[in-house]
Design goal:
CATH topology of the largest domain: Aspartate Aminotransferase, domain 2
Strand content: 15-25%
CATH class of the largest domain: Alpha Beta
Largest sheet: 8 strands, mixed
Number of domains: 2
Radius of gyration: 21 Å
Bound molecules: pyridoxal-5'-phosphate
CATH superfamily of the largest domain: Type I PLP-dependent aspartate aminotransferase-like (Major domain)
Structural class: alpha/beta
Distance between the termini: 32 Å
CATH architecture of the largest domain: 3-Layer(aba) Sandwich
Shape: globular
Length: about 375
């Protein structure tokens, strides 16, 4: 018997967790303990960069000191603070093509000039980067999504990371590494963080990092964080103070209970299995139905894969027909600065059930085959 609503639109568009992924009972226990143990601090206003014991927990995990850790209500606000600080008065940013669409929006709102470097299976095009550094104004940062990249699902190999870090050191280029999906791993081994490689080489001033517990624990907690290079700590602290005085300390204390209770590791393993079944359901249909017609990435984790359609197909037009057929995805063009990516699409496998993914992907594949 089908578990699908007859006329329901299946969303391969929403890059959000399925509610079935949340460790709800554990978080309920952690909320109570957080109030009981930390309530006198966590129910009050507090430090603008967040709940001190969680800053320390994160600092230890990343091999840095707590004064470099800024806890923010989700990492998107850290991203916006960073963009506002770095691009006050203009300046150029280098982003990958494609890249996270909200970064493009933040840069546009700040009035930053955006130049791009292609991100493919081969990593970042370092020759292009070199050319960008030779021409025009010096870029104020390079924004990179190294692991389970949004929107493509691609991950930089260790060699690609080392080459990028060598390049950054040689050219004194600030690397902004946004890596919220890294721990959402279905299979394979972790690659080193870019900031860790930079720290090892004594280049802390070139390392800027954001991540989040949104993808690993629950976005409703709104706990994101930045690891700031020394020159950014004071300006970001001032922005946090002026914007919200202090972030939601209670959610941070609740999360700390979860982390100190040793629940993260087992939860991440559970998540890997949960998402693996969904990714595999999507890949199975693509392999069955679209082999030789389209190409796609096969991510080892994260929420997304990237579909490259036959040359004649426009993903925005396809999306309109898909809505009528009861499936939604995100056309890829919005992840590019400028007019590119018409024949690409981001498919998310984090939200629907395995049955819905199977059905949604079949509906989409049928449309692609018919339209070819
Ligand atoms: C690449 C990337 N960065 C940052 C974020 C922001 O996440 P949050 O504000 O929930 O931490 C997201 C969420 O979709 C994302 O995909």
């Amino acid at each position: 018997m089908s578990v699908l609503p007859a006329a329901g639109v299946i969303s391969l568009a929403r890059g959000i967790p399925s509610p079935d992924m949340f460790p709800a009972q554990l978080l309920a226990d952690c909320a109570r303990r957080a109030v009981e143990r930390h309530g006198r601090v966590a129910l009050n206003y507090g430090p603008p960069l967040g709940f001190e014991p969680l800053r320390e927990w994160i600092a230890e995990r990343h091999g840095t000191t707590a004064d470099r850790v800024a806890l923010t209500p989700g990492s998107l606000i850290a991203l916006n603070f960073i963009v506002r600080e770095r691009f006050a008065g203009g300046g150029r940013a280098i982003v990958e093509a494609p890249t996270y669409d909200r970064m493009l929006r933040a840069l546009a709102e700040a009035g930053a000039g955006v130049v791009t470097v292609d991100r493919t299976d081969a990593g970042l095009d370092l020759d292009r980067l070199q050319a960008l550094l030779r021409e025009g104004e010096r870029p104020r940062l390079l924004y990179v999504l190294p692991t389970f990249h949004n929107p493509t699902g691609r991950t930089l190999t260790r060699e690609q990371r080392v080459a990028l870090v060598d390049f950054a050191i040689e050219h004194e280029l600030l690397i902004y590494e946004d890596d919220p999906y890294r721990d959402v791993r279905i299979e394979g081994e972790h690659e080193p963080y870019l900031h860790a490689l930079l720290y090892e080489r004594g280049a802390e001033e070139l390392a800027l990092f954001t991540s989040s517990f949104s993808k690993t624990v629950a976005p409703g907690l709104r706990v994101g964080y930045a690891l700031l290079p020394p020159q950014l700590a004071a300006p970001i602290e001032a922005m946090a103070t002026h914007t919200y005085v202090s972030p939601p300390l209670l959610a941070q204390a609740q999360l700390l209970e979860f982390l100190e209770g040793g629940h993260l590791g087992p939860h991440l393993r559970h998540l890997g299995g949960f998402l693996g079944a969904r990714r595999d359901a999507l890949l199975r249909v693509l392999e069955d139905q679209l082999e030789g017609v389209a190409t796609w990435t096969r991510p080892d984790g994260g929420y997304f894969l990237w579909l490259e359609l036959p040359a004649s197909l426009d993903a925005t037009e396809l999306n309109a027909r898909a809505a009528a057929a009861g499936v939604a995805f995100v056309p890829g063009a919005g992840f590019f600065a400028g007019e590119r990516g018409a024949g690409t699409a981001r498919l998310a496998f984090s939200y629907p059930s395995v049955e819905e993914i199977d059905e949604g992907a079949r509906r989409l594949a049928t449309l692609v085959r018919e339209a070819r």
